[in-house]
Amino acid sequence: MADQTHKITGIPYSVLDLATVVAGKTPEDTFRNSLDLARFVEKLGYTRYWLAEHHNMISVASSATSILIGYIAGGTTSIRVGSGGIMLPNHSPLVIAEQFGTLASLYPGRIDLGLGRAPGTDQITAMAIRGTRFNAANDFPEDVQQLQTYFSDDNADSQVRAVPGEGLDIPIWILGSSTDSARLAAAQGLPYAFASHFAPAQFLTAINIYRQNFKPSEHLKEPYVISCVNVVAADTDAEANRLVTSLLQFFMGVITGKRRLLQPPVDNMESIWTAQEAEAVGQMLGCSFIGSPETIQEDLQSFMDQTKVDELMVTSHIFDHQARLHSYEIFAEVIKKLNVPILS
């Protein structure tokens, strides 16, 4: 099988929205901006708009993920909307089957179900969510299969059925930030989305394991990889480097445990973080694209040549909403100019 590079303008590009709350605003403002962004990127040709489940985080308002998916799907017309992801150990598979069965019935052919095994929060909050099921992450592979059973026509004679949900074609994705998720996605023949936007260290290893061990299934004949990446694009490198300081402060809050609402950009970070914090944040930025259209295109071309991922999913922690929209606009134009490597 020869490795060739072809000019392709149709590689899918998508959005991951954490429903980030910026300083001086409320979740209500966040949700309004999310819908505005979804409508904007739909016109730009983005394929999916995913929302991620998180809890007990002051700057992330996507805790009721299924409700937000319905809100975004109801306010758009064609873009696929889904979870990036639902943290399945936090829920009964039956309840998720019913929720996404309802969403897929309301918005046919437009709903994706991405599943992760992490709690999406701290351990104390995970205990509050899961109660006696605190160790439910150990059951993740079985819970994924149970969910598939609820969606299947073969479950029609079961005593426990998902209505709505049964018999619906709702694509299931395995999400992950480690090699464990890669092995599960490969074994079950499911598409794989990797959280390279915050855990790039194991990204290449994980997608190689996934591709090498993939077993075709009724759901998917060949491996399919989404890489989620940070993008902060602006008209100039200087402006992008200023805008990205909001993301740097966000990541600094993650590693220190001192979370705040998304902060406005600053001219430099030297007076804000320590050398150790800067190094730790830097390790989270391995799959980040920051700069002007020319810089983004050069860096992204190198990334695609190396990884040959099937789809790119963009998340952008940008303080100003208009600047955020412009970043997604720039990215859409850049990606159409790439020489995308594929196997042939």
TrEMBL record:
Gene3D superfamilies: Luciferase-like domain. Pfam families: Bac_luciferase. One of its GO terms (cellular component) is cytosol. GO terms for molecular function: oxidoreductase activity, acting on paired donors, with incorporation or reduction of molecular oxygen. Residues 23-302 form the Luciferase-like domain. To bacterial alkanal monooxygenase alpha and beta chains. This is Luciferase-like monooxygenase.
